Amino acid sequence: MPLLGLLPRRAWAALLSQLLRPPCASCTGAVRCQSQVAEAVLTSQLKAHQEKPNFIIKIPKETLTEKYGEDSGLMYDLKDQGGELLSLRYDLTVPFARYLAMSKVKKMKRYHVGKVWRRESPSIVQGRYREFCQCDFDIAGQFDPMIPDAECLKIMCEILSGLQLGDFLIKVNDRRIVDGMFAACGVPESKFRAICSSIDKLDKMAWKDVRHEMVAKKGLAPEVADRIGDYVQCHGGVSLVEQMFQDPRLSQNKQALEGLEDLKLLFEYLNLFGIAEKISFDLSLARGLDYYTGVIYEAVLLQTPTQAGEEPLNVGSVAAGGRYDGLVGMFDPKGHKVPCVGLSIGVERIFYIVEQRMKTKGEKVRTTETQVFVATPQKNFLQERLKLITELWDAGIKAEMLYKNNPKLLTQLHYCESTGIPLVVIIGEQELKEGIIKIRSVASREEVAIKRENLVAEIQKRLSES
Amino acid sequence: MPLLGLLPRRAWAALLSQLLRPPCASCTGAVRCQSQVAEAVLTSQLKAHQEKPNFIIKIPKETLTEKYGEDSGLMYDLKDQGGELLSLRYDLTVPFARYLAMSKVKKMKRYHVGKVWRRESPSIVQGRYREFCQCDFDIAGQFDPMIPDAECLKIMCEILSGLQLGDFLIKVNDRRIVDGMFAACGVPESKFRAICSSIDKLDKMAWKDVRHEMVAKKGLAPEVADRIGDYVQCHGGVSLVEQMFQDPRLSQNKQALEGLEDLKLLFEYLNLFGIAEKISFDLSLARGLDYYTGVIYEAVLLQTPTQAGEEPLNVGSVAAGGRYDGLVGMFDPKGHKVPCVGLSIGVERIFYIVEQRMKTKGEKVRTTETQVFVATPQKNFLQERLKLITELWDAGIKAEMLYKNNPKLLTQLHYCESTGIPLVVIIGEQELKEGIIKIRSVASREEVAIKRENLVAEIQKRLSES
Question: Tell me, what's the ipTM?
Answer without folding.
Answer: 0.78
